[in-house]
Design a protein that fits this description.
It is globular and about 50 Å long. It has 6 helices and 17 strands. The chain has 2 domains: 6-122, 2,3-Dihydroxybiphenyl 1,2-Dioxygenase, domain 1, CATH 3.10.180.10; 141-297, 2,3-Dihydroxybiphenyl 1,2-Dioxygenase, domain 1 (Roll). It has helices at residues 19-29, 75-87, 152-163, 212-224, 278-281, 292-297, and strands at residues 6-16, 33-38, 41-45, 55-59, 64-72, 92-98, 106-111, 117-122, 141-149, 166-173, 177-184, 192-196, 201-208, 229-235, 242-247, 253-257, 271-274. This is Manganese-dependent 2,3-dihydroxybiphenyl 1,2-dioxygenase. Residues 8-123, 141-259 form the VOC domain.
């Protein structure tokens, strides 16, 4: 196993009280496709992605992150990572084995330092997917996941030490200090970011669209459909990606984005960006002002699933 056992982001699994309403939002409004269903479960795919699903929804009394799933290159890498984590006293939820989820594969689960369930897998069957055509304002793939952390420095250290993530950039504020760490596992600027927040929770899940035109069409479709917009449209400096943030029916923030930066890892040096400068938050100057109200909408509810593994 290399020092970077993780290859890519696979999917984000969410538990919600109203499964039907959440599924309708993600499929009828957001543009995902229901690929598989089971009792109280819905597996939603992005039409342009080879992953079996990018969002899994589970009906539950408590809203929570069920798990964040990443890919590994081989089953041997999965085994080696599980052995290394156990030796470092990381608490395993399950031992490596065959996965009973769409696409199968070989993987295991563990808790991160704050109690989120993380899954790493290899040999998951590739889904039959297609090229997203010009003008189609639906997600191509799950771009990245951002989590809130009450201990962001420790959480960053956990993912760097144990999973081989590397720092791409940092957002800071003159009064509040370092506020967000952008972490990568491949050439994409970030697959995971960690935001300083009052509690552990989901900050947002981001979905890549085909291009600028499709991103703007999707943003407009959300606005016309009455979906509550939090922030955008605009273009960030860190990652150079576009952004439009909306709330799903359960108060989770979801983002349409495109053109996330692909970096040259051999020459890249992390930046320390002061996001009190307007051009850092939004290079275009088209988004509504980033203020305390906007920021608080992404704090989300405290995650009720910390150190409690999902039942499936």
């Amino acid at each position: 196993m290399t020092d970077r056992p993780i290859t890519h982001l696979r999917h984000l699994d969410l538990a919600v009280p109203d499964l039907a309403r959440q599924q309708e939002f993600f499929t009828g409004t957001w543009g995902l496709t229901t690929e598989h269903t089971d009792s109280g479960l819905a597996f939603l795919a992005a039409e342009g992605s080879p992953e079996q699903y990018v969002i899994r929804l589970r009906r539950a009394e408590d809203k929570r992150i069920d798990l964040i799933a990443f890919g590994a290159a081989t089953p041997a890498d999965v085994d080696a990572l599980a052995t290394r984590l156990a030796a470092d006293d990381v608490r395993l939820v399950s031992e490596p084995g065959t996965l009973d989820t769409p696409g199968g594969g070989y993987g295991f689960r563990f808790f991160d330092n704050e109690g989120r369930t993380v899954e790493v897998s290899a040999d998951v069957a590739v889904r039959a997917h297609r090229r997203i055509e010009a003008g189609e304002s639906i997600p191509v793939r799950l771009s990245h996941v951002v989590i809130n952390s009450a201990a962001p420095e420790q959480t960053r250290a956990f993912y760097e030490r144990h999973l081989g993530f590397r720092l791409s950039d940092i957002l800071m504020h003159p009064r509040m200090g370092e506020m967000m760490y952008f972490l990568r596992i491949n050439r994409w600027h970030h697959s995971l970011a960690i935001a300083r927040g009052p509690h552990a929770s989901l900050h947002h899940a981001s979905f890549e669209l085909r291009g600028i035109d499709e991103y703007l069409r999707g943003t407009g479709r959300m606005l016309r459909g009455g979906v509550e917009k939090i922030w955008g449209p605009g273009r960030h400096l860190a990652g150079n990606n576009t952004f439009s943030y909306f709330l799903d029916p359960h108060g989770n923030t979801v983002e349409y984005t495109t053109e996330l930066e692909l970096i040259d890892e051999d020459s890249w040096h992390p930046h320390l960006y002061d996001f009190s400068r307007p051009e850092v938050s939004d290079q275009w100057g088209t988004a509504n002002e980033m203020n305390e109200f906007v920021a608080s909408r992404s704090f989300n509810d405290p995650d009720r699933g910390l150190f409690v593994a999902p039942p499936v």
